[in-house]
Write a structure and sequence with these properties.
It is a single chain. The chain has a four-stranded mixed sheet. Strands 2-3 form a two-stranded antiparallel ribbon. The chain has 13 helices and six strands. The longest helix is centred in the middle third of the chain and has 24 residues. The N terminus is likely disordered. A hairpin with a 5-residue loop joins strand 2 and strand 3. It is α/β, with parallel strands linked by helices. Helix 7 crosses helix 8. The radius of gyration is 22 Å and the shape is globular.
Amino acid sequence: MGVLKNLSDEYFGNSVREEEVLFRYDIDDENTPEHTLTSEEVTFMRGLTRHMLIFDKSLFFQIEDLQRHTKLVFSGKHVQREEMNDNAGPEHDLQTLEMLIEENEKESKQSESVSDEVTLLDILKEQRKRLKDSLGGPVRVKKSGEHLGECLHRGGDTTVVLYLDVIEEVAKKDSYDTMLLMGQVLLHEYFHAFYFNAGEGEMDSISCVEEPLTEYGSLVLLDSVASSGLTIAKDAGKALEKALPFVKNKQKCVGATAAYGFGAYLFERHMSDYRDLIARYANVSRLMESWEKSWVEFKYMLYPRYPSSQAAEEFVYNKLMELL
């Protein structure tokens, strides 16, 4: 009975083993960050890693659980590279758009339906015009800055990397803003890891679909923590205040980054649907083939420019739900 009494607190969840509350991470030995983690940053990120979003009876998001197979590494800076690999160049994009427009014009003539509502053909024609207008300049955003973080898949291993020195620079070396941005990037990259490991299939994710869903997930989790009774709730609320306009501002970008901005729309308009939306995407995230016509069309709804009206945004959302 003495043994049972000593174990009871741990058994019933009133206490936890010390190794279970440790915030697990490695430091990149080859690119050691100049930024030194503060106790406040560790406390904030530890709190985020322990928070759980439940989607259905079997699916949930929790970084602490994901760390069973996805380790966290803090690094310094990252060399610049293309943000999204779905693009083969503006000339190829223009040819693809011309083909899609021609096919949709034939279909619309056959249906002979007249409507004042936004159509796929309207959006594709608008994107074609924007692409032509941009041909004299950089259609794709080479970089809006260096990577803040990254989710890498090598063999059977998944690693989330946070580039602390870049995060600190973007936060203008403000210690509090650095901590808040660090938390946002942590969530964003671990949502990539979640989508990669949650569903079936072996296809690579489609960036123009996954990036907004990843931004959406990170915003939803920050909102969940902010409305909780956790000690980091106030900081999570401040992080959300910073993160939402940060994501929304990407709607003004030209190129791959524009798709990220759709995550702000999903959060503002469909935040209450997160259980269904995130679960549906997670289940098919690696089953989608980027060359299928439906997904090619979806890409050009968000590329190279963000939809120019609320009606177009809603059309893109409805199309996404159909595809999922």
